Amino acid sequence: MKKKILAIQGSFRNNGLTSSMLDFAVTESKKAGYEVEYIRLHDHTIGYCRGCRKCFETGECVVKDDDMTWISKSIKNADVIILAAPVYWANVPAIVKNLFDRMSGTSMEETDTFPKPRLSGKRYILLTACNTPMPFAVLFGQTTGLIRAVKEYFKTSGFSCIGTVVCDNTIKLNKVPEAKVKKIIKLIGKI
Ligand SMILES: Cc1cc2nc3c(=O)[nH]c(=O)nc-3n(C[C@H](O)[C@H](O)[C@H](O)COP(=O)(O)O)c2cc1C
């Protein structure tokens, strides 16, 4: 059976660095014969998590009248998620954080001890970008902040990481550098 890839675009900017990184990943995934679904989060209505905690019992969000109903199904159906998200305040953009919040109970079950993943066996690739140049992006916790937050969601949900590509110093870039494109292609090869 064809592997199912879900590409999630977490930046508002359609012609930005992260959306461009995702485009390379999607093109390569299609070339490899994978089934690809693409979701640009900003095209959809995703209300805030209400913190009611019902989802931890039922595995489903109580809010049924927005786009998370089908987006959560797409996440559950995917073998691999490719998440593209720029660094905002050393973290993910709010819409991506809100996606993680709304996915809480779909992704893991609370127990008396450690959380139990509900999406075990899936994998993810993270594509990110930031203005801060290396090594400062790491030294000042910019990219590391985002990577930690993304790992927290995926690891607790049962995903393992295929790899991460970071484009730093984006203020000086008008396109994704060739070396980063090669790294993206290499990661798609590992699917
Ligand atoms: C609200 C906001 C917050 C940002 N916070 C950071 C930050 O904490 N560190 C950083 O290096 N760049 C930060 N940036 C810069 C973006 O990460 C950078 O411009 C990135 O390339 C944007 O990705 P995009 O082209 O896909 O939109 C921020 C940009 C915005 C709009």
Written account of the structure:
With 191 residues, this protein is of the alpha/beta class. The chain has eight helices and seven strands; from the N terminus they run βαβααβααβββααβα. Helix 1 (17-31) packs across helix 8. It is globular, with a radius of gyration of 16 Å. Flavin mononucleotide (FMN) is lined by residues 11, 13, 16-19, 86-90, 129-132, 137, 142, 170. Residues 11, 13, 16-19, 86-90, 129-132, 137, 142, 170 line the site of flavin mononucleotide (FMN).
Please supply descriptive tags for the structure shown above.
191 residues; alpha/beta; Rossmann fold; 5-stranded parallel β-sheet; 39% helix; globular; binds flavin mononucleotide
At a glance:
Helices cover 39% and strands 19% of the residues. The model has no long low-confidence stretch (mean pLDDT 97).
CATH class: Alpha Beta
Any ligands, ions or cofactors bound here, and which?
Answer: flavin mononucleotide
Distance between the termini: 14 Å
Order of helices and strands: EHEHHEHHEEEHHEH
- Could you list the spans in which at least 5 consecutive residues all have pLDDT below 50? none
Mean pLDDT: 97
Instruction: Report the radius of gyration as a whole number of Å.
Output: 16 Å
For the sheet with most strands, the description reads: 5 strands, parallel
The CATH homologous superfamily is termed: Flavodoxin domain
Class from secondary-structure proportions: alpha/beta
Strand order of the largest sheet: 2-1-3-6-7
Task: Please give the number of β-strands.
Answer: 7
Briefly note the CATH topology name: Rossmann fold
Instruction: Estimate the strand proportion.
Output: 15-25%
Shape: globular
Number of domains: 1
The percentage helix is 25-40%
